[in-house]
Amino acid sequence: MGKKAKIRREADNEARAFAKMIRISPQKLNLVARLIRGKSCEEAISILMFSQRRVANEVKKVLQSAIANAENNQQLDVDRLVVAEATAGRQFVMKRWRPRARGRTGRILKPFSNLTIIVREKIEKGA
After folding, report:
1. Which of 1, 5, 87, 94 counts the highest number of beta carbons within 10 A?
2. Residue 126 domain flag
């Protein structure tokens, strides 16, 4: 007997990578994810390498993981991969406080995010 096989969420020409608990707000993470959506993987890595944003290094690691998953698990051609989706989601928010004047408190919110990147093999029409 045994368990049934897990149903894949992606198509046969797709691979995904997921990172959770990235210490940045989803809004800021989405600014970087927006830069690479729809780009080829080679171009996306070069964009992230020269980006000034702190989280760009984390996004680059997840993208490289998605490329490795496509190459090793799905046997896709690395040169034809395109970033199909790059989504940032909300994980949780740590709440801290700082004493302020007259016995009050100042709330400090430390948000965390999730990042999902799906790469897809582009099919050339001319062949």
Report:
1. 87
2. no
pTM of the predicted model as reported, rounded to 2 decimal places: 0.89
Transcribe 47-100 into DSSP letters.
Answer: HHHT--STTHHHHHHHHHHHHHHHHHTS---GGGEEEEEEEEEEEEEEEEEEE-
DSSP state for residue 18 in the 8-state scheme? E
Judged by phi (left if over 0) then psi (alpha if -120 to 50, else beta), residue 18 lies in beta
Q: List, in sequence order, every residue forming a beta bridge with 93; answer none if it has no partner.
A: 111
- Number of domains into which the chain is organized: 1
Domain carrying residue 105? 14-121
pLDDT tens string 37-81: 999 999 999 999 999 999 999 999 999 999 999 999 999 999 999
